[in-house]
Amino acid sequence: MRRLLIAPERIAALAQRGGDGRCLILEDQESHYLERVLRYRPGDRLALVDGVGQLWTALLEPERRLRLEQAPQAPLRKEAPITPSLELSMAVPKREADLVWRMATELGADRLQPLLAARGTAAERCPLDRWRGIVREATEQCERLWQPLLESPCEAGTWLARPATGIALLATTRRDALPLCSQRLRQLADGASHSELAAGIRLAIGPEGGWSPEEEERAEAAGWHPVSLGGSILRTATAAVGGLAVLADWRALRSASCRPPSP
Q1: How far is CA 228 from CA 134, 176, 186, 204, 241, in A?
Q2: Which of its termini does the chain have fewer beta carbons within 10 Å around, N or C?
Q3: What average pLDDT does this structure show over 134-161?
């Protein structure tokens, strides 16, 4: 079934309306998507997700209504977030930011942080509402139950200077003896405590002109570990997607190894 993401507070409000508490009024863009894009008609079924781990099935009804087939407080499916969480912080490039946020959502990022780097793009080139719409659509398309949190843009030097939590990896170039991202991640994860892993894995990707010396100095002073993504000089979008894929693969392998054996 096709999926529609509805904000969790709207679903939670259903139970407070009286009656059976299962009828949801669609907003204009939701109605347009179901009826004009997907060509749904009354009686058609779809999956409804809230972006925080819960799924219901629902029937489309006349007059832009959806009727949940399960009670709001009793979803058909409920899923805990995958741990450790993955965060992608990226200096906003002049082009392709839309594509990165979409692909990062598909790869399993849990938090997305746009950065305004000294050698990157300006704040006025950050259409946050459009980006959040892209993340929402990608969450529906790739059938995730958890929607990534896309934060407001921050000035890179100030943001990187905050004390780093969890395992924090700073992708950079043109420095001797930099460990590969995958190699350093394994080293740090093997020696990390449970609380450090619980704080998540973070990867920061710089602009195509590279981090400024001040940005790198402030990041390393705050606990970020400089890493390489290979011998080539990559575009920001390529580095972001490639680096996040390394993190996602490591997490998937770790999760598989932590599962108990089948009976």
Answers
A1: 29, 10, 14, 11, 14
A2: C
A3: 97
